[in-house]
Design brief:
This protein is an alpha/beta fold. It is 31% helix and 11% strand. The strands form two sheets. A two-stranded parallel sheet has the order 1-2. A two-stranded parallel sheet has the order 3-4. The chain is globular and about 50 Å long. It starts with a helix and ends with a helix. The relative contact order is 0.14.
Length: 140
C-alpha cells in the first residue's frame, strides 16, 4: 500500500509487454487502486493474492518489501507478516529470484541469504552505482 519501491516497480513493469503482476498482500496493505488502474491502462495483467501459495511455481521474480507497521494508526490491528523462508522459497522454481529493497526486518528469513536465488544483497550493491550515476548526471 505505502511502498514507493513497489509503486515505482509497477510503473517500470508497465513499460513492457506480456507482463503479469501478482500482488501478494495482507488486508490493509493491498496495492492502491490508482496503480492497478495504471497497469490496466497499459495492458498489464494484475492478479491479487493473499498467500505465496497462490503464485505460479515458475514465477520469475518475487519482489518482497517489509510491512510498514509505523503507518498503521490503529495499533490494535494484528498484522500477520508474509515471510519468505527456506520452506516457502523451495516451493518455487530453481530459477525464481527473490528481490527486496532492504533493509529487512523479519519478512525474509536469514536462512535463504546464501540461496543463489536470493539476489537482494546484489540488488542493494548495484543500487549504489545507480545512485552515483544519477548524482553525477544531476551535479555534472
Amino acid at each position: 500500500m505505502y511502498g514507493r519501491t513497489t509503486h515505482s516497480l509497477v510503473k517500470l513493469l508497465s513499460l513492457y509487454k506480456d507482463i503479469t503482476v501478482y500482488g501478494v498482500s495482507r488486508q490493509f496493505f493491498d496495492l492502491p487502486q490508482e496503480y492497478i488502474d495504471y497497469m490496466n491502462e497499459r495492458n498489464v495483467k494484475y492478479i491479487p493474492c493473499k498467500e505465496f501459495s497462490e503464485l505460479p511455481k515458475d514465477v520469475a521474480i518475487i519482489y518482497h518489501t517489509r510491512t510498514q507497521l509505523e503507518r498503521i494508526e490503529d495499533k490494535s490491528i494484528k498484522i500477520e507478516e508474509l515471510i519468505i523462508d527456506k520452506k516457502i522459497l523451495d516451493q518455487f522454481s530453481k530459477d525464481t529470484l527473490v528481490m527486496h529493497p532492504l533493509p529487512r526486518i523479519a519478512e525474509i528469513s536469514e536462512d535463504i541469504d546464501d540461496d543463489p536465488r536470493a539476489i537482494y544483497f546484489e540488488q542493494a550493491h548495484n543500487g549504489v552505482f545507480i545512485r552515483m550515476a544519477a548524482l553525477k548526471l544531476l551535479l555534472g
